[in-house]
Amino acid sequence: MRLHEAVAVEGVDRKLIGRVTRTPLSSGRSDAFLLSEEGVPAADAAGYLGVLAVGDFSGAPGSPVAHGLRHLNYLNDGDVVAVDPGGFVRVLYRRTSRHNFILATEQCNSLCLMCSQPPKTIDDSHRLAEHLRLIDLIDPATAELGITGGEPTLLRDGFLQLIARCRERLPHTALHVLTNGRLFFYRSFAKKLGAITHPDLVMGIPLYSDIDSQHDHIVQAPGAFEETVIGLHHLDRYGVRIEIRVVLHALSIPRLPQLATFIARNFPFAWQIALMGLEMTGLVHKNLRELWIDPADYQGELREAAAILADAGMNVSIYNHQLCVLDRRLWPLARKSISDWKNVYLPECNGCDALERCGGFFQSGTRIRSTRIRPLSSSVA
Question: Where are the alpha helices (DSSP H) in the chain?
Fold first, then answer.
């Protein structure tokens, strides 16, 4: 699924962010793009933020126009898009999807060897205004929303402003933030976040080893282990729920059981432990020799780590793994975790009786994958 497309634009002199509507509106037009597969008379387009035209478009409706949409013709009422003056349409929110997220910033204070979104050394703090605008446009009935990066907390007070706006405008929407947690080393920052009292907030924070130097090597940031560990405790002190995320690769697997023991002893307050397969994109390819291990070859360590955590009464989930590779005893922990817009299955999956339960692949992970991919029969599934 495409989330952006280059198109032709007319009358667009600044970035426009608005809801999509296929149904003509009698009110609220100034926040909406009218999407049409045919020409729109000027009178019908009056008052809208703009017009989105599927395919070619002729005529001047009196509003800004983006025409030539072909890949984004799935857009529907309540979706939110941004239209740039340069002729680029980006989908910011899909009303029917469970996998919406805000890319808060592309800056980061780590450089993880397996980063799927390599950071950029740019000042993109201007995005904050766009994010706040988006939050105002999202359907309040949305079940969940993610905030990711880069490192979202680098927005500092702007990050806190994002969380506060979500609490105000989307009080019933579960909020999941992906962060390295390092800035919560500063107790005052954790305290400010806790003071927002968001009713359904989880901070997903990675921990890759029980040895400080090993974790710091994986994230390429000296001192990161100490900052992360202290930050986790500060967040718990101020009532912020924590998810600890462990990406599984050749560097984290050898001590995975020891890491599980470390987590169980030091972070019993964690809401969830997520054991995650590699996403084969971004910096992974640059560091593939150091990182790659066939998931079929670490099932023993994974099973032992999951048992340690479960015996400690912790909530354990396994993300980004195919069921045909996963030890059958771990299936109850497996989640369909890959975002719908980048989730695919292979020809080898055809006829698999476990397909409906299986999380499949990242679109980027179909070339380098386990050698054990195969369809499962009903006797196994």
Answer: 42-45, 127-137, 157-169, 187-195, 212-219, 224-237, 256-266, 288-291, 299-311
Distance, in Å, from the CA atom of 268 to the CA atom of 260, rounded to the nearest integer, reads 11
Work out the end-to-end distance of the chain between its first and last CA atoms, rounded to an integer number of angstroms. 28
Helix (H) or strand (E) holding 344: strand 343-344
Question: C-alpha dihedral over 181, 186, 189, 195, to 10 degrees?
Answer: 100
**Residue ranges matching CATH 3.50.30.10 in the chain:** 4-92
- Distance, CA of 100 to CA of 347 (rounded, Å): 28
Count of Cβ atoms closer than 10 Å to residue 280 Cβ: 22
The hierarchical CATH code for the domain 4-92 is 3.50.30.10
Gap between the Cα atoms of 135 and 142, Å rounded: 11
Q: What is the pLDDT of residues 188-242, one digit of tens each?
A: 999 999 999 999 999 999 999 999 999 999 999 999 999 999 999 999 999 999 9
CATH T-level assignment (fold) for domain 101-365: TIM Barrel (3.20.20)
Cα 374 from chain centroid (whole Å): 28
For residues 270 and 313, what is the distance between their CA atoms, to the nearest angstrom? 10
Whole-structure pTM value: 0.94
